[in-house]
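#structure-requests
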Amino acid sequence: MTPVSIPAALLARAQKIRLIAFDVDGVMTDGTLFLADDGQEFKGFNSLDGHGLKMLRGSGVQLAIITGRRSRVVEHRAKNLGIEIVHQGAHDKLIVYEALCRELKLDCDVTAYMGDDVVDLPVMRRAGLAITVPAAPELVKAHSHYTTTREAGHGAVREACEFLMRAQGTLDAALAPYLK
């Protein structure tokens, strides 16, 4: 694969990551909420993102979801992707995030968080690597180390996964089986 130049400081942050946590709405989805008359919620997830998450998990990076909303569809998506750490209804994401780091015995510097709105800022400012999407408010982008070029729900998560794998030297091995 063609090497992509990553600034040294960003590369150093990305190389250390052992856990990445994701917000859902506006990160794993495009942020649109479809609500039926009976209150059932529907979300659209991107299959490219899903495979990126599976490859990243296969490379040894732990995955987590920390989201303020509660939705059964998030449980189903996480199960489908093998994401075992799922925290929904997290109104104070920083408390949940710090408890997760303690539970996993990880220093915050070896974690990343991908969020898209001001409610994600406390975690993004604490994590070793903060990632956001192009549609995020300027304040969120100002506190991010990396802003994807792909939009949320349209490959942004895949881009973040491949970015981490490229920095950690695991991307080529993950893609090799598809190049036979």
